[in-house]
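Incident review: delayed structure delivery

Summary: a single-chain prediction request sat in the queue longer than the usual turnaround. Root cause was a stuck worker, restarted by the on-call engineer. No data loss occurred. The affected request and its eventual output are reproduced below so the record is complete for anyone auditing the incident later.

Affected input:
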Amino acid sequence: MSYLYVCEQGASIGVAENRFQVKYKDGMLRSIPAETLEVIEVFGNVQVTTQCLAECLKRGVNIIFYSTYGAYYGRLISTTHVNVQRQRKQADLGKNEKFKLAFSKKIIDAKIRNQVVILRRYARSSHADVGRAVDEMQYMCKKVQNAGSIEQLMGYEGTAARKYFQVLGQLIEPEFAFEGRSRRPPMDPFNSMISLGYSIILNEIYGKIEGKGLNPYFGVMHKDREKHPTLASDLMEEWRAVLIDTTALSMLNGHELTTENFYSGIDQPGVFLEKEGFKKYIQKLETKFRTQNKYLSYVEYSVSFRQALNMQINQFVKAIETENVEEYSPILIR
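Output delivered after worker restart:
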C-alpha cells in the first residue's frame, strides 16, 4: 500500500481514470493507482478537489491535514470502519484498573529499554560516557515493575525521559546539540524533527486504530484529554525512540541535513525545517517505516515497521477482546 505526502505549497490533489494525481505549480504531475493508496498527508497550502474527497471517502482513504510546520489540524475519514461491539468492550475495559496498570507497565518498560539501546548504540560512535544515565534509566525500569498506580508509573517514565534526552544531546553533532525536550514551539533542529515525527506517527497509529473499529479517544494509560486521541498516544510510546528519534539522529549525525535546512519562525517563535529539509525528512521517515525488521517477539519472519505497527494494534485488539494483557508484547529493539 502507498502513503502520499504532499508538502509542496500550491499543489493540488485530484482523481482521474482511477488514479490519484498531484499537480505541482511547475506543471509536474505525480500519479498513484487508486487501489494502492491508503493515506494522504497534506501539509500547508495544498488543494484537494471535491472529486478526490468523495473518492477517498468511498475507498476508505484517510486524508490528514497539517499546517506548513507540521501541526495537526484534522482528518477526513470514512465511517465504514466502526465496530460498535468492539468499542463497547473497549469502553468497559476502561474500568478495569488491573488491566490498565499491567498494560501501561509493558509499554513504559519497553519505551525505557528501547531508549537505553539507542543511547548505547550512538555512544559507541561518539565515545560519550552514557553509563551513569543508563544505570539510572535501568533503575527506573525496575521501579516500573513495582508501581502501584499509573500516576506513579508515569513519574518513573518522566524521570527516565529526562535522563535520556539530557544525554542524547551529547550524542548529536555539536552544531545540532540540544539541552532537552522543547515543544510548541521546538527551539532547536532536533526538537523540530522529533516533534514533527511524533505528530506523523501519532496520526498514523490513529488511522490504524480506527481501521480496527476501535475508538482512538478511549485511552488506557494517559488521562483523557478533550479532542486528543489518547489511545494513539498510549500505543505510540513504545515507538517514539524506535522510529522517530533514531531517524532524526541518523540524519543529523550523518550530515544528511545542515543548519541551512532549518530556519527560525518570523511570525511565531521556534525552529522549523525549510522546504528541502522537510522533504528529505519526510522521505527518510517513509523509508524507515518500510524498513524490514525482526523485532516483534511473536513472529519469526521480517516485517516492515509499518506492518509491525499494524500487527501491534491487532495484538491490542486481542488483549481487549480476551481481557488478557499477556496477549500484548511491545516491540523491543536490540
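Verification: The CA atoms of residues 266 and 317 lie 45 Å apart.
Action items: add queue-age alerting; document worker restart procedure.
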